[in-house]
Amino acid sequence: MRPSIARLAVPAAFLAIALAGCAPAPIYKPTANNIAVPPAQVAREPERYGTADVIWGGRIVNVRNFADHSEIEILAYPLDGSQRPQSNDTGNGRFIAAMPGYVESLDFPSGGLVTIAGRLNGTRTGNVGEAQYTFPLVSVNQSHVWTAKEMSGGHPNVSFGVGVGVIR
């Protein structure tokens, strides 16, 4: 006898809700002016995106402090549903996050993962090594540096499948 679809739908819905509850919620709420394009695309067509809002993240390359603001160069990565940078993915270009005042480089360590919310503010030409590069500039409204615990949290240790598994 085949189980009815209704009898299977209830456990499936429960499972989906339970697994969704394991993932942290996004930290920043998109605005009506948000765009969902990577920094590399904005660098190619900055006039197309103007002063749109972005939620971007990635790996901190370096921090530069100036008299009235600080700039953080970031290698962008796609964000997951919780807006955590997916550093195991391919980079999506680089951008500069401009923040008012002094930013302590120990709070934004080189190699750390960060998510920012802010507004596009043009581009700047600079270098990555010996290569010339166009960096989108973002005026930061909010930022979050991810801890190792936050990056590993919310990933349920559950998998489904048929076959042989290997535990590392």
Automatic annotation (TrEMBL):
Keywords: Signal. GO terms for cellular component: outer membrane. Residues 1-25 form the signal peptide. It comes from the Bacteria. The keyword Nucleotide-binding does not apply. This is Outer membrane lipoprotein. It comes from Luteibacter yeojuensis.
